[in-house]
Amino acid sequence: MSRVAMHHSIITCDGKPAVERCTxxxxxxxxxxxxxxxxxxxxxxxxxxxxxxxxKNAIAFQDKKICRCNLNCRNGGHYHCPFCDKTVxxxxxxxxxxxxxxxxxxxxxxxxxxxxxxDSSLPSLQPSSSAASIPLLPPTIISPSPDLLVQQDTxxxxxxxxxxIQTSTIHSSADTHMTLSSPLVSSSVxxxxxxxxxxxxxxxxxxxPLCSVTCLKRNLAKHIQRKHPKKPxxxxxxxxxxxxxxxxxNGISAVQKGGHxxxxxxxxxxxxxxxxxxVQCELEECRQYxxxxxxxxxxxxxxxxxxxxxxxxxxxxxxxxxEDILSEMVHLKFFGDPKKSTCIKRQENAQAAHVPLxxxxxxxxxxxxxxxSVHEPTLHSYSRLGRIFVTYNSSANTWHCPCAKPRMSCVHxxxxxxxxxxxxxxxxxxxxxxxxxxxxxxDTVYPPSAEVFxxxxxxxxxxxxxxxxxxxxxxxxxxxxxxVTELQPAETVCALCPGPVNLEESxxxxxxxxxxxxxxxxxxxxxxxxxxxxxxxxxxxRPCRSSWTFKLHPAQEQLLKYVLDTDNLAGELIVKTGxxxxxxxxxxxxxxxxxxxxxxxxxxxxxxxxxxxxQGKTIFVADLYVVPTWRKPTMCDPLASLPNDAxxxxxxxxxxxxxxxxxxxxxxxxxxxxxxxxxxxxxNSGFSTTTIWD
Length: 694
What we know:
This protein is an alpha+beta fold. Helices cover 29% and strands 14% of the residues. Among the domains are: 10-100, no CATH class; 243-311, no CATH class; 323-427, no CATH class; 444-504, no CATH class; 596-693, no CATH class. The longest helix is centred in the C-terminal third of the chain and has 17 residues, at 598-614.
């Protein structure tokens, strides 16, 4: 095996790692052994103090010092071997590796020289004349002094020099009135080595509960610490906790507690409108984290649950709970009349506060767990945000509420039972359905059995073949929004059975379908995601129909319906841009057949300005509130409303309103003179208008 180049973390005993001033990202000095996230670039004096810590904790070996490297050579801090390309994490393991490295230079010669010096030094230790008459006892029955025991333990690790052996021998003989000769030393060393090299016991191996990797039991804790650290999760557009809004008035959403497996969701409030703004998480550890960040001056630091709300696009629909369903539950002895009255009173309180009483939250398609967010008017330790989660496990038939003990009734459990009995009463059925209810044929169960699957493949092979020559509309490239989001069967009758046999209604079998195209793979077509972000970015918007007429997802349609709902509050803040705050009433003028306010109009032109900027054009759009002031009676100077760099702009857009529609006016280059008739809004030389909508 050939030697590799020595890593820069290995220095001489009196040396230091090489340091140079950064010329790429800054003018400071970087640590050559730590990444930028661990040690920020700093001044030379600060860096020297940092390097002294590296040298102080280094491993001394021969004439070198091996400092700990924290770079991206591997995960976590580690040490580099000066002879081979191996990296070791633990300090003790590195010290053991240095003694047994296979490519250590002149290791054989050094061992031979050590053995020769041992053989030459041991015979020189002859017993004295006074001790010659004392017979030598076997090592197994000698009872030496404590000093002799220390010396024997030392001999099992390293072979000391002859002078040290002679000194310890004289000292021990003075205490025990006997002399230890060289044959006795050799036999004790061999005896100790044979005991340590006995048959090893079989080590117990265990399986990691997080990743199913098999490792030694003594290494399990270190494996979990290295591979599964409890670090705060980085929330991105592709990796975030799912959430849904359960109370739009107070800005309360239900967010997943963790990203793996089932867990009871938590309530998070993100209210940034009205007189009082509140951004908080009900989880106690997140509240402590927020307080610590606030005391440290990091007032804009939030937990992963709050940061995941920026990707929340769903709003939970409230189920209007009926009183007749509650009466039926009393008749079936779910609970009595007093609890029925309490549930009705809670419903009236929720309606008076304009908040949903009970909302079902389901982040996973599971028929086993049901989660309900129930309104709680009184604040407690278990309902800090005015709502509480109740869960039901259908397989174990158990209800859980933080306000009550297991198998104890409470008003939140009763309201959740009311909601579940109205929406999904089959969960409470313990007997088989009656004979009047038609049973489904076993062949309709998905996934199909072996025989049904065979028939399915034969039918697809015989009737669903792709033609040799595909149509042009299939071959030509499509926009990401032109692909279907749901694949419905076209057949209404069975093609195999004789006669017209009608098929059942289609049912969804998966929400995780993928579309493989020439440009990539489209996933999660039924929800907003990266494929929607691609077509809505300003640099990808084009003046064509496909950029403005794509089909909305169900979540987008639900959000649009919520924004344009005339029964909700008109002054509720919906969108906050860099220049204005848009309420629901502003969107009514844009999405409904009503007069549009200039506030929402300025926001639309702000989007157009960003689109032009992404195409490399610098334009200026006049404010819709300012343009009418150019007319009578104010007669303000239009040039005073233009920016100072108007001469270098690619275009100046002036939106002019006429009854029924807007006109976009784009002046020609400033080298030409142009005039504006303030009476009739007509165009003159060097001035053009284009109608954009009616």
